[in-house]
Design a protein that fits this description.
The chain is of the alpha+beta class. Helix content is 34%, strand content 26%. The radius of gyration is 21 Å and the shape is globular. 26% of the residues are buried.
Amino acid sequence: MRPLIVVSLALSLVATAKEPSIAPELLRAKTVMVKILPGDHERLGRIASPFPDQNAVDDVKAALREWGRWTVVKEDKAADLVILVRCGQRGAVGTTFDKGRSTEYGSGQEREGAAASGNEPHRVTGMVEQQTPPKYDILAVFSPKEGKSAVYVAGGKIINAKPLWVLNEEGVLRSTVVPGVKQLREDVERAEARQAKK
């Protein structure tokens, strides 16, 4: 009978060890803000964030609204949590001006818009310097204070701040589906269920 108890206890400990721990802040939070995780170059104002990162912000906001756990807010001071996102594997971004229209390309998707003025020369191309992107998408949750300090540096590292929860994997910011938010939801709801049992 005792070997059965020992095996049962060992299996219980293994199951508990596999469960990710969730910071209490995630369970208490009511509001969240979503922004782009700035890179060191962007922090210095040398380059602008490309379209994929802004699209990821919009997709994450939509997924969070669908979940309905936290209210998405626009200002840091109103947020209990800050979610920072950054897309992996993007290249340099270029702009082509053609007859008063501009087209962004090379960032994973193309967008057209009116050029700043209609006086741009026909078919002029400009490239925007880009730092090395992370290999994988990053979705990280921070306290508001830590979120203000977080910076991405080449190699997929976040410096100056410690996330409460982070995913740094391929495809976690995939458009419309946003698997990263789905994983965050599962982790938070699992932790809440464990807490309710205590």
